[in-house]
Amino acid sequence: MIDQEMKKAVLEGFEKTYGDKEGVKAYFAPGRVNLIGEHTDYNGGHVFPCALTIGTYGAAKKRDDNKMRFYSMNFTNSKVYETSLDDLTPSDAAGWTNYPKGVVWAFEKRGFKLETGFDMVIYGNIPNGSGLSSSASLEVLTGFILRDLYGFDVTNQDLALIGQYSENNYNGCNCGIMDQFAVAMGKEDNAIFLDTADLSFEYAPIKLDGAKIVIANTNKKHKLTDSQYNARRSSCEKALEELQKVVDIKGLGDLSIEQFEQYKDAIADDDRRIKAKHAVYENQRAIEAVSALKAGDLNRFGELMNASHVSLRDDYDVTGIELDTLAEEAWKIPGVIGSRMTGGGFGGCTVSIVKDEAIDEFKEKVGAAYLKKIGYEATFYIVEIGSGPAVI
Ligand code: GLA
């Protein structure tokens, strides 16, 4: 569902910024929310995200020289960042433009060389720093624009991999594939059941008769730092190496719960064992949750969402008081089918499935309890599942 006002605004933004409107095209790439399967994507496990109807709008046009210019309408006192195809190294001074520049760099690494530069303006409606994948959205948007402007022969799945490659190797966050995949492959009214071990996936229709997906934003100022994220990933990798001495597996996602319990003593360190436990159990929860959903058992799906949060809180240790308050207060409300943190953690958002008649009570009660305990407000959004990137 394209927001025509946003489209109009980004095209006007382009004209205002660069004084040109001839042949300028408008584009969109969504944000994402993950329903279950958290911190499993770099362990060869399953995830179950969906694209949202909110995302990043872009306007772009090829240039005749090798300059690249970027402008974001999301910041006040924003400025035009000008660089060139000869300068593809990341820098602090480049700010947010390290994301689109990283994607240009990643295309070149794959042998797709841009013959000229381009001008680009972006305007997003994903709440800032909310953990709804504004960076993956920007990466996939940039890749989609490059494919469209230069005719590069890449699939949407390639756009996801290129985005992840640039984030890992240009922007220094060792993220998995979930976010870019959900953004690039999104399908209206469907979540994506993705096996990150081999990227096989299926779409699963989300029919929530009488209920909605509600996102609650902690508005926490300091969110996931790359270092904490990368540290969790290292713990899992080390645990995998230890397990591989006793069992033939490629990733933690290959283990059933029974196998994990059988072999877990091979992991020498208590903390590492508990982190690996989350990865294994969460993967199995995601698999069970999708079966429950297919069988029409939404209540079981909700119970597994709640169990996912508990594991992320107690074992994986990536929640924090803000996310815990939102989830725990949500669980108290009878019309809440399930509620959990979504994304990397430490801040960002929870995702909840809430019956229509309980939505007002949910916002009121969870909102009031959050304000009382945390000292500032949470924000609530009722969201819809949208499609992948598009020319609009
Ligand atoms: C972030 C990363 C993803 C994934 C989630 C946790 O969103 O970008 O790759 O690891 O955290 O599930």
Word description of this protein:
By secondary structure, this protein is of the alpha+beta class. It has a domain of 202 residues: Ribosomal Protein S5, domain 2 (2-Layer Sandwich), CATH 3.30.230. Helices cover 41% and strands 21% of the residues. The strands form 3 sheets. Strands 5-4-6-3-1-13 form a 6-stranded mixed beta sheet, with helices on both faces. It has a 4-stranded antiparallel beta sheet with strand order 10-11-9-12. The relative contact order is 0.17. It binds alpha-D-galactopyranose (GLA). The site of alpha-D-galactopyranose (GLA) has 10 residues, from helix 5. The site of alpha-D-galactopyranose has 10 residues, from helix 5.
Search tags:
Ribosomal Protein S5, domain 2, 11 helices, 13 strands, four-stranded antiparallel beta sheet, six-stranded mixed beta sheet, alpha+beta, about 400 residues, binds alpha-D-galactopyranose, about 20% strand
